[in-house]
């Protein structure tokens, strides 16, 4: 049984008050809170076990290395990757996508080659491809969403042409909550000989992921949205794609030998991990993923689906509230505007006075905002510890916004 009260007790910050009211944390799409087990594991590393990893033969280095490297296997299990050797540690999805841009795409794409992406991508899955547009003449081919905010897989596949070299697509929109059928996209793209990069920054948080079943070539995750620390993350890279990549960052760990006249590289995945890593951050991510797997991602998905349905029913009574995107298949993410002159920043500020934390702005998705004809929205994004009572608190605070800003 999914016991949300017990789960909430695992997150120390949820017991605090903001502006004299119980915290209602609905900014999970930006960054999730951390369970005590993650905080305690990181504290243990810093106070008892910390040293640099690899090559240090003393006790603390051996402990740190063992705990750090064990996370690779945890991530592989969480993502359903066939091998932990297909997992590259990163600081988050942004670094992972940039790694693919620099190490895989840049050496092989020519002027006029195309990258297919959707209009609802996060900037982290746009800007690295703009680098290739600016510097190498690569063409970005945009796929529009439907009026309800959905993105049919066939529209993405129809955009693939003879010059398409990559499809870069989100699994779930961080603005609309739209879930994308990336499995169908991956299958269709593979038939056309085109690799697929999936931005799993939101998708991996809200439902089970099996990259082997999806059939993707690259899958990026970021730890701080997965109830782990900031500065942690990983990218799954299918083994044959990894063999096509050249190192992106140079420095310690990613080399085998260095001389005055030559360098030889370490084997993958380590050759893509230069320098002293975020040791404690990655250990924290491993604990967070173990926590999620202990809850069961199917159970998390079911809980959040119930929250979404409850919120949608409550929102229907607010005829001055506008939710952007109402695709049938979506997560519990709601980007909102109100009738009248109310700006998203005003909405967020008033909600905060009631202890309700939401995000206001463009959500690092300016092309989508322009497509929707908006400059900003207020976004409430739910997580595994949120409750129907917190939906009620959000609705009550929104009613106050309408009263004050209409």
Automatic annotation (TrEMBL):
One of its GO terms (biological process) is cysteine metabolic process. Its cofactor is pyridoxal 5'-phosphate. The keyword Transferase applies. Residues 24-394 form the Aminotransferase class V domain. It comes from Rhodobacter capsulatus (strain ATCC BAA-309 / NBRC 16581 / SB1003). PROSITE patterns: AA_TRANSFER_CLASS_5. The gene is sufS1. SUPFAM superfamilies: PLP-dependent transferases (SSF53383). CDD domains: SufS_like. It comes from the Bacteria. It catalyses: (sulfur carrier)-H + L-cysteine = (sulfur carrier)-SH + L-alanine. Catalyzes the removal of elemental sulfur and selenium atoms from L-cysteine, L-cystine, L-selenocysteine, and L-selenocystine to produce L-alanine. It is an enzyme of class 2 (transferase). Keywords: Lyase, Pyridoxal phosphate, Transferase. PANTHER family: CYSTEINE DESULFURASE, CYSTEINE DESULFURASE 1, CHLOROPLASTIC. Belongs to the class-V pyridoxal-phosphate-dependent aminotransferase family. Csd subfamily. Pfam families: Aminotran_5 (PF00266). InterPro entries: Aminotrans_V_dom, Aminotrans_V_PyrdxlP_BS, Cys_dSase_SufS, PyrdxlP-dep_Trfase, PyrdxlP-dep_Trfase_major, PyrdxlP-dep_Trfase_small. This is Cysteine desulfurase. One of its GO terms (molecular function) is lyase activity. Its EC number is 2.8.1.7.
